Amino acid sequence: MKKIEAIIKPFKLDDVKEALTGAGIIGMTVTEVRGFGRQKGHTEMYRGGEYTVDFLPKIKIEIVVPDSLADKVVGLVVGAARTGSIGDGKVFVEPLEDALRIRTGERGDHAV
Amino acid sequence: MKDAGSGTRSLRWRIVFGLVFACLLAVGGWVFAQDKPAAPAAPAPAAAPSKPDPAGTATGGIGDVTAKEAGKPTLSEVAEFAGHNRVSINVMWTLLTGFLVMFMQAGFALVETGFTRAKNVAHTMMMNFMIYAIGMTGYWICGFALQMGGLGAISTMGGTGLLDSEFTISLFGKDFGLFGMRGFFLAGSTYDVAVFTLFLFQMVFMDTAATIPTGAMAERWKFSSFVVFGFFLSMFTYPIFANWVWGGGWLSQLGKNFGLGHGHVDFAGSSVVHMVGGVTALAGAMVLGPRVGKYNKDGSANPIPGHNIPMGVLGCFILAFGWFGFNPGSTLAGGDLRIAVIAVNTMLASASGAIFAMLYMWAKYGKPDPSMMVNGMLAGLVAITAPCGFVSSFWAFVIGAISGVLVCWAAVFIETVMRIDDPVGAIAVHGVNGAWGVLSLGLFSDGTYGDGFNGVEGTVRGLFYGGASQLVAQGIGTVTCFVFIFAASWAFFKVYDLVFGMRVSPETEMDGLDVPEMGVHGYPEIHGPATLVHAMGASVPKAPPMTMAPERSR
Predict the structure, then answer these.
(1) ipTM > 0.85 (yes/no)
(2) Which of A1, A34, B143, B218 has its CA 20 to 30 A from that of B501?
(3) Amino acid B243: pLDDT
(4) Interface-testing mutation among B115, B116, B295, B302, with chain A (most A C-beta atoms within 10 A)
């Protein structure tokens, strides 16, 4: 099993969700997060004064899939989330030891 | 199954309700149908025709004049009635416009709370809420008496000079009225409808001034200190300055005594209400100091954006609506048809204030800042408050336009040069533009109104219409307002701060004032420890500490 963690631009969430559900991925967890990478922050104005917003709003998507699907899912996420401009985000893939469905007690690939 | 059942039930109720409603309509239709043909059928008897008057042209006539012999009033009975009607219209007008001004408290609450942070909403809101109650109480105790106790007759309300006691001193052979001494607790000889009408109207004006400093001092002011301040302003500083301008005091007599125009003229309160509020705000914000994190070590300022722009914009609109009471109501007479000019001038200045604030911010900083457009409209309203009765629509628009630019410039100047932290721009809106308002009256008053104002013959004229001395009187009024209000307020705040402390602790300020000061979160679902409780949709019962402790420690 792999856990795929994607940090994307908030307005790309719908595209990513549609790409994944269209490919048969049936579950994901989404969190509103803040952070910065190479994009850094940006400045905004309020009442004539400038201020810097260091941590920009992003969306974090977590998806757990069997090993065989991992590459495909990563490809779908990257394809759907890319705009080509700075700040598109990142995808992290990590191995996952186990999973358990609370309702039935199923484990492993059956649980995701 | 359960859903389907409840669906059927609600459908059944809807049918029953619909049938009942249809029956009511049918009965109503039948009643109307019975009525209509009856009206033309019966020829009107001479004495009391009891037919309906849907057009309203026949209702009210000679039979409605109170007379010994119904329908045949004598001349003196007609005159009595006309006099009573004149005063009735004026009292009604003054009360109704006073009710509008009362609603401005809601506008202030929304503007100030919207332009400050979410962690302080309960505190900021409650200052704006409680000032209404606190200010009113203080004003009833002695504020009204000090302000209006020496006014004399309230001419538009048929008053008979019950407010007849002014404390005066003699200087240069002239009387200087300093404060009134009749009407404490509205008791005794001031238990009178004209006096009560005046009290209501003047009370809501005082409360407007009293609620202005809460914006400049928001997010760091101890609530207990605010409560004491509310009594101080409503009982002393505001009433005394208001006496000098509106209660027959010395500023209003500068014309009569020294030939300076009509004395210091402030039609609806650019100086008496707004500049008093703004200057008090300045003194308070100086004594309190800036919010934690407002200024960097090198002295540069950090913007601290307000948490809710829609709230601020809604508040601004409520204020603009209330201003139709503030300015036109200040005639104290619904029969004074100058109210049309005053109302139009008021809204024109608010429009140009907003437009020119928008253009200025757009040109200078790249975007039309929403909070500054709101401040621009309010600045236009503040500035036109003094001259609204005396200028043409063109000058009203110009006065508003200048105030729209002035407020943006002043807000940045106060923040970055004077380094005074005013979260909502109260000093720039009310203090700076209050001063601009009374001075503009001395420039643009066109001599079409104000004959006999403050006991001086002739109409009110500004510098551009041959009234240079009027501008001098306006200048004296402006300087007096600043010096007296700033000195008295600064001394009050400073002494209070030294003795009791005015400011919350830095920890409280960082956490937000809502819980430490008020005991509740304004937005518990966003900030409170109650977040999880709300998410679960149930309140957590207080468990015995013995069983909970080990759980928590994990």
Answers:
(1) no
(2) B143
(3) 97
(4) B302
